[in-house]
């Protein structure tokens, strides 16, 4: 008998495989043996991780400065001593050499063996040190996880290619391990589509369905299932027809993706030789890597909400680290960092007071940042400090009035001054742009532009606010039209404002990442598009094959004739917007 | 190689803060530095090694220093211990 379980699809994609129910402890750190030739490289991984860990600690120490108090300084100094202690690092390296095991495993073994020795001492003062030791070991493990060994995927004993993993819940760390083991798909009983884990699954492109109630009870070990990430469905024991249908669907989407890849190496010019630039949207380290592989010109949108989802607010240091890592990953290409764009509803309890009745129209984005300025200052300082690592642009989300920009700029200037007094010189010309995503901002864009260095059009929210529909609400989803004449007019207005003041206009969000609407934007005069790395190839294909001139004529005609349906416009662009 | 007998005279012996100071001081020298207590002998540049000696006040230790700057290292470390690691009591 076949059975279908439903949940919420997190990653669109299809996976076929056999059920494996996750047992506790199964996803501990990776442990594997090395070939003799790989030992030196593994030892080097430990040294590098320790070096980066030490840089991190000395960075914190520097920040703590005189203001942090003696206790904090002493603790950090002690952590540095532990980090460099030959009993930890050298002994872990010895374990790698002697037992030919990977860095994570060797470090965990050595950490455990030291813990054991401390336990035996049974001294009050030393009990404290055990906690410190654990923290230091975790810090090194984190550094190791950020730079996983290339060997891992081939050395690990059991790969999970044909496995659909079923679990109660998964952490982002679990997912990292599972992705290295090439898991086919994931099903969890708990968790929502906007959890850390879900966001990571999307960027790792692992098909995942969350919120499948009682999945562990209902699914049997070894049972064959199909996972449809688009519909959030888990089909149990599918018959041959169904299975064939899904494998064909999977194969054709893979084929399509690999055909797209060849466009990545082409120059970014339309068929009639107009140049355009493609940027990436990224938030997690893996996404920056993917963006580099896709050959983007930079990051058009670095979201920062991920840092705030942890249940507690990230301090300046944590943020600084994330931003400078991003800049380093992009190797000198510009990174546009958007300041926090969440409402109090998605944030830790510290911000409970900022929760209003309707999050979409409430205290969110820059509104929130301007009302909790301590939080905003931490973020701005972290961004400004990171700007010494590479070209940074600041993007302010959810603008409604010009006054908000003035206030934000004032805070940026204050943070720059305070950093200067701490001996750090920040470029006073560091570009500050605004996200045009409320109808008010789009209508008043000419005024907004006078206070901004670049414009970024956030099309997802703009569509939602302009059409007054909630995308999640099925009852009104029929009204969704990415080429609604009203929307097209607002977009045209933004492009014009940018041209008038000679400001760059970047389009982010769905419209830029969809090959159909990208041509509409091209027709409106947009030449900068920012999208998830997965979309770069398809959009590039659409634009490379397009005639900018023809697209412009089609869009202008649509506007002047009072076009009714956006669908017609998009079809016309698809059929006639290309080079002949 | 230089060997010196030292006695821990501070109230708490080689607890965390004192051990940190000792390791930081020893690490400034190029010479290799060991501390021995009974049958235990540890690298004095290793914070965990020193802590694992778990030496309380009144303990007699043997300090061994070997290297180009062994004289200076032995003197500095001995002075630090005699000064009760700067704890001032």
Please render the helix and strand layout as text.
The complex is a heterodimer of chains A (580) and B (89).
Chain A: E1 3-6, E2 8-11, E3 14-21, H1 39-64, H2 70-84, H3 89-99, H4 103-121, H5 124-146, H6 152-155, E4 163-167, H7 172-180, E5 185-188, H8 196-204, E6 208-210, H9 215-218, E7 224-228, E8 233-236, H10 240-261, E9 277-282, H11 285-293, E10 299-302, H12 316-329, E11 335-338, H13 366-371, H14 373-386, E12 392-396, H15 402-421, E13 432-436, H16 439-443, H17 445-449, E14 454-458, H18 459-467, H19 485-500, E15 504-508, H20 510-513, H21 515-523, E16 528-531, H22 536-544, H23 548-560, H24 566-576
Parallel strand pairs in A: 3-4, 4-5, 5-6, 9-10, 9-16, 10-11, 11-12, 12-13, 13-14, 14-15, 15-16
Antiparallel strand pairs in A: 1-8, 2-6, 3-7, 7-8
Helix pairs in contact in A: 1-2, 1-3, 1-5, 2-5, 3-4, 4-5, 7-8, 12-14, 14-15, 21-22, 21-23, 21-24, 23-24
Chain B: E1 2-7, H1 16-27, E2 32-37, E3 40-43, H2 47-53, E4 60-66, H3 70-82
Antiparallel strand pairs in B: 1-4, 2-3, 2-4
Overview of this structure, please?
The complex is a heterodimer of chains A (580) and B (89). Chain A is an alpha/beta fold and 580 residues long. Chain A is built from 24 helices and 16 strands. Chain A has helices at residues 39-64, 70-84, 89-99, 103-121, 124-146, 152-155, 172-180, 196-204, 215-218, 240-261, 285-293, 316-329, 366-371, 373-386, 402-421, 439-443, 445-449, 459-467, 485-500, 510-513, 515-523, 536-544, 548-560, 566-576, and strands at 3-6, 8-11, 14-21, 163-167, 185-188, 208-210, 224-228, 233-236, 277-282, 299-302, 335-338, 392-396, 432-436, 454-458, 504-508, 528-531. In chain A, the strands form two sheets. In chain A, strands 1-8-7-3-4-5-6-2 form an eight-stranded mixed sheet. In chain A, helix 1 (39-64) runs antiparallel to helix 2 (70-84) and helix 21 crosses helix 24. Chain A is globular, with a radius of gyration of 26 Å. The model of chain A is unreliable at 152-157 (pLDDT under 50). Chain B has 89 residues and is α+β, with helices and mostly antiparallel strands. Chain B has three helices and four strands; from the N terminus they run βαββαβα. In chain B, strands 1-4-2-3 form a four-stranded antiparallel sheet, with helices on one face. Classes of the chains: A alpha/beta (580), B alpha+beta (89). The interface between A and B is medium-sized, with 19 and 16 residues.
């Amino acid at each position: 008998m076949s059975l279908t379980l439903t949940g919420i699809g997190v990653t669109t994609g299809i996976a076929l495989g056999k059920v494996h129910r996750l047992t506790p402890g199964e996803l501990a750190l990776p442990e594997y043996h090395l070939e003799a030739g790989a030992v030196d490289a593994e030892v080097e991984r430990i040294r590098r991780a320790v070096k980066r860990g030490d840089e991190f600690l000395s960075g914190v120490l520097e920040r703590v400065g005189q203001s942090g108090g003696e206790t904090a300084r002493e603790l950090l100094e002690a952590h540095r001593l532990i980090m460099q202690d030959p009993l930890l690092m050298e002994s872990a390296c010895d374990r790698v050499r002697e037992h030919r095991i990977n860095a994570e495993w060797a470090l965990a073994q050595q950490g455990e063996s030291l813990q054991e020795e401390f336990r035996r001492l049974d001294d009050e003062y030393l009990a404290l040190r055990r906690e410190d030791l654990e923290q230091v070991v975790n810090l090194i493990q984190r550094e190791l996880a950020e730079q996983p060994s290339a060997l891992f995927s081939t050395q690990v004993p059991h790969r999970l290619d044909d496995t659909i993993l079923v679990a109660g819940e998964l952490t982002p760390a679990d997912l990292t391990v599972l992705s290295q083991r090439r898991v086919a798909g994931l099903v969890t009983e708990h968790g929502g589509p906007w959890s850390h884990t879900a966001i990571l699954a999307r960027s790792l492109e692992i098909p995942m369905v969350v919120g499948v109630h009682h999945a562990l009870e209902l699914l049997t070990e070894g049972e064959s299932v199909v996972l449809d990430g688009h519909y959030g469905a888990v089909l149990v024991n599918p018959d041959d027809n169904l299975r064939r249908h899904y494998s064909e669907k999977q194969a054709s989407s893979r084929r399509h993706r690999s055909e797209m890849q060849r466009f990545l190496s082409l120059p970014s010019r339309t068929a009639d030789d107009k140049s355009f630039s493609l940027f990436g949207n990224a938030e997690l380290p893996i996404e920056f890597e993917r963006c580099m592989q896709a050959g983007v010109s930079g990051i058009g949108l670095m979201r920062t909400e991920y840092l705030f989802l942890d249940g507690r607010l990230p301090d300046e240091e944590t943020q600084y680290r994330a931003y400078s890592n991003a800049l380093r990953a992009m190797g000198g290409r510009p990174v546009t960092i958007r300041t926090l764009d969440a409402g109090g509803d998605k944030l830790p309890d510290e911000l409970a007071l900022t929760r209003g009745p309707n999050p979409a129209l409430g205290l969110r984005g820059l509104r929130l940042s301007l009302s909790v300025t301590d939080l905003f200052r931490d973020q701005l300082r972290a961004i400004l400090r990171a700007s010494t690592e590479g070209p940074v642009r600041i993007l302010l989300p959810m603008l409604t009035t010009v006054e908000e920009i003035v206030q934000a700029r004032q805070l940026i200037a204050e943070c720059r001054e305070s950093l200067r007094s701490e001996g750090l010189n920040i470029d006073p010309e560091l570009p500050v742009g605004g996200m045009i995503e409320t109808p008010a901002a789009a209508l008043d864009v000419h005024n907004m532009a006078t206070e901004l260095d670049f414009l970024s059009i956030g099309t997802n929210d703009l569509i939602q606010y302009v059409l007054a529909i909630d995308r999640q609400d099925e009852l009104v989803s029929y009204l969704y039209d990415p080429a609604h004449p009203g929307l097209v007019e607002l977009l045209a207005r933004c492009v014009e404002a940018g041209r008038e003041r000679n400001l760059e206009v970047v389009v982010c969000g769905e419209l830029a990442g969809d090959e159909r609407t990208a041509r509409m934007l091209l027709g409106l005069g947009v030449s900068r598009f920012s999208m998830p790395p997965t979309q770069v190839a398809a959009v590039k294909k659409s634009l490379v094959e397009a005639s900018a001139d023809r697209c412009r004529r089609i869009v202008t005609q649509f506007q002047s004739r009072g076009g009714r349906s956006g669908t017609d416009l998009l079809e016309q662009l698809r059929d006639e917007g290309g080079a002949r | 190689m230089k060997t010196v007998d030292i006695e821990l005279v501070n109230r708490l012996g080689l607890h965390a803060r004192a051990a940190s100071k000792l390791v930081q001081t020893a690490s400034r020298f190029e010479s290799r530095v060991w501390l021995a207590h009974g049958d235990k002998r540890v690298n004095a540049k290793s914070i965990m090694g020193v802590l694992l000696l778990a030496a309380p006040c009144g303990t007699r230790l043997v300090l061994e220093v070997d290297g180009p700057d062994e004289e200076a290292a032995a003197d500095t470390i001995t002075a630090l211990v005699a000064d009760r690691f700067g704890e001032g009591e």
